[in-house]
Amino acid sequence: MQRLKLLKPLKHALLSPNGCLVNQTRSAYALPSYTLLDHLQEQVLVEGRAKARAAILNRPSALNAITTDMVSRLNKLYESWEENTDIGFVLMKGSGKAFCAGTDVVLLHQLINEGKIDECKVLFETLYKFVYLLGTYLKPHVAILDGITMGGGAGISLPGMFRLVTDKTIFASPEAQIGFHPDAGASYYLSRLPGYLGEYLALTGDKLNGVEMMACGLATHYSLKERLPWIEERLGKLITDDRSVVESCLAQYGDLVYPDRRSILHKLDKIDKCFGRDTVEEIVDALREEEAVDRSDDWCKATLKKIKEASPLSLKVTLQSVREGRFQPLDQCLVREYRISLNCISKRVSNDFCEGVRARLVDKDFGPKWDPPILEDVTKDMVDAHLLPLSEFEPDLNLPTSVREPSA
Q1: Which of 84, 96, 216, 377 is buried most deeply by CB count within 10 Å?
Q2: What predicted TM-score, i.e. pTM, was given to this entire model?
Q3: Which of 376, 375, 317, 367 is nearest to 342 (CA)?
Q4: pLDDT (tens digit, 9 = 90+) per residue, 43-67?
Q5: Could you tell me how many helices (H) and strands (E) the chain has, helices first?
Q6: How many domains does the chain have?
Q7: Of 133, 125, 21, nearest to 74 (Cα)?
């Protein structure tokens, strides 16, 4: 418990940073242009409050999975709200049982197979620019993370000022299990978690609940789901742009919570011992050593199983990305993640991303054929190829750093 108490000061440390997704309906694209516009606007709804605006992710049948149109609309809305002096603060929430399950990787899989790589690039570029906008946002921001919050869904919320979680919140970064990497700012916020918890979450895709998110600093406030209507009603009546007033309102209905005895956070010492190693191979060896010492502890066995199921190449790229993120600001993390993402979809080194999505989300045979198939076959050159600057014909992600962070 003493270790957990030490984590409390971290809850504001993340202020300024694809898992189970369903394909979107295509039939709307045959509709007239005005109907198409209405359809796209319906995917991100807007609610007006006394001194605030709320953006509502509205693809509940797809667990609010992110598309280019959705994040493009978010960019435009947030930019206009930031400039509007009549708006004091901004909220974001999701419709249905999820906040956001991440980027629509099934859609990306289809676009890649159709040879529409440029459309995939636009999605990543637009998404990462929104993450940066939120991470440098000038007004208080409240993300209500009720339900599934995974991958890119965390990226469009965790960089903001306040992150409210509930007893129904489920957080994870499962990208390595589909041959991808934790992106949308994940290498920034995961690398700033206590010890080597970020590496553990990134390599295993393990889940955290709302209480655990509070304890490790990913969330700033916790409430039971049944209290959300009261919190939203109270926030809706606020006439302020003062972050302390917004925070007081959130705290008024908040709960003081502690992870239960089964929480992974009670294994932080063991996580640090194993996941603080320099390479994925050394991490695996450390887990096997721990398993040999205490065969009654199922954690090592379960953790090794999760790592074995992931793409060997993605594991190594992910570890390198999170490690570099420890020493970089949000904008540099996003530039690096953009490089990795474009290399993943280009198939220059491997087809693991498409193979992972096919096996886990399209055909659902859950038997991906990774290339390379084992960690020992993944070379340093393969990893470096994902992280190095793009070619002269492929510009890096261009973020407005000089405008939004002139003193950086």
Answers
A1: 216
A2: 0.88
A3: 317
A4: 999 999 889 999 999 999 999 999 9
A5: 19, 10
A6: 1
A7: 133
